[in-house]
Fold:
Amino acid sequence: MKEYYTSIRDHWDTEVFYTKDPNVWVAEAINLWFSAKVLYDQQWEWTRDENDSIDSYPAFWGHRVIRMLMGFAFENLIKAYLIKEKGKDVEWFRKEGKFKIGGRGHDLIWLFEEADFKLSDSESHYLGLMAMCSLWAGRYPIAANENAMPRKRKFKPSSEDLLKRSAEIRKKYPTDPRVQFGDYWDLLHGGVGNFEYDCAQNIFDRLEEELCNRSFDI
Structure:
């Protein structure tokens, strides 16, 4: 049946032509962002019907998936920014038939640094969490290697010991992001809170505004 299909290279070259337009990346980011938002808005409602009875959905834990989709959205937005501001599409599509950013092409923190896009401490912290979810925690039960795993605090036998250690850490390291905004290991096992979501929304809005002000339409 191959006579009915265009060549692989012609098909690739056509898609490359479109993909060099930042709007294409922005459109993908919007799809991903609002997919995450649907899950976020309904994250506590899926297993209950209007009578507070068990609905047809089984209980499931979607918070890492929300963060994964947000991370994917940010990856598309920041790559749109890099194409528009830095002309990175020339470098990314340098080899024929390949799209290659480099070994850190999915590292959100690195991509934002490449774009010189400033983040607050809280935004940077939660972006790192979303990057972790987009790389593995939103898809798999374990990372590809031990160094990608977030640190886990040592076991304590009682709640009193936990509270004592917590107070000690806050006193010693009051400005550490893990103290201010939460350890990644803890956050991975909890829902997406309002402050985390607001940080993510702020990044999205600022990036979208920057792109809107860069002389092309969204």
